[in-house]
Amino acid sequence: MRKQIFGLALLFGAGIALGTGTAALAAEKKEELTLAVIRTEEMSTLAKRWEVAIDYLSKTANVNINFYTTTSYASVVEAMLSGFVDVASLGPKIYIVAHEKSDGAIVPLVSYTIPADMFNDKPCGCYLGALVTKTGSGMKTLESTKGKVLALVDPGSTSGNALPRALFAEKIGGKELESYWGRVFYSGSHTASARAIQAGKADAAFLSLGTLRRVIISGEMKKEDFNYLWISPQIPIDVISVDKKRMKPEMVKRLRDAFTGMTKTKEGQAVLAATGWAEFQAAEDARFDPLRKILELKAKLKKKKK
């Protein structure tokens, strides 16, 4: 079922069978919530991961969940501000935007934690951004990409737009990205940027190593397929967010307990194993303060150029 509202596509709805348990939950007329996720990878991959998580959360928190997805960062924020979306998975930069636009009402519920992998030697509630090129392209330094085609992700992306613009002005002589690279375009997702590199549609790309990790694990690409010209400082990972003014404190607690309790039961551990997440941890707004400082630096640099 696909229904478009605020540019969001409905994947799973209350009463739409995810498994034998979900249909029964819908029949009990339990409270309904709408959860939205920004799509940074293939729809089928995203749906497969979230299907088991939604089923678990519906049962554990005793609530029916409608699950929407979109490629537009702005659409999710708009939907939360309007009250159409109750819970959303937001990247760091777009979370800060949502928090500010809601006058502090939209806050983190929990943060993801990813397992140790080829880019992080320990489990971390963080991820890394990177500037990558294709192995064998001859572009092994930042200077070698000057004047070439650069792929970004989306204006609302942290690792795929905000960090490069904030941190790279100094590295490229105080210039805008568009002045250093010959052409700059937004691919729409981190996976699309990685594919653009491999297909020769982009020479370099700023993207999330967290998403690239999943692409590599899927077998579609290898770590060795890329040159890593720059790796960012650690970035706070995406958070599941709610509007504390709209959602009852009791529901906030039920949802937080459902997420953070996954490591404590066999069913929850199975969800984590199926989705590739290590765990969910309770999160607070203050974890984004370092990123706020980076974004403030970006704004100051932009102001100086005017």
UniProtKB/TrEMBL annotation:
Whether Lipoprotein counts among this entry's keywords is no
> Biological process GO annotation list?
transmembrane transport
**What InterPro entries does this protein's entry cite?**
PhnD
UniProt entry keywords in alphabetical sequence? Signal
Q: Does the keyword Metal-binding apply?
A: no
Concerning PANTHER family, the annotation shows: PHOSPHONATES-BINDING PERIPLASMIC PROTEIN
Q: Name one GO cellular component term.
A: ATP-binding cassette (ABC) transporter complex
Q: What is this protein called?
A: Solute-binding protein family 3/N-terminal domain-containing protein
Classification lineage: unclassified sequences, metagenomes, ecological metagenomes
Pfam families in alphabetical order: Phosphonate-bd
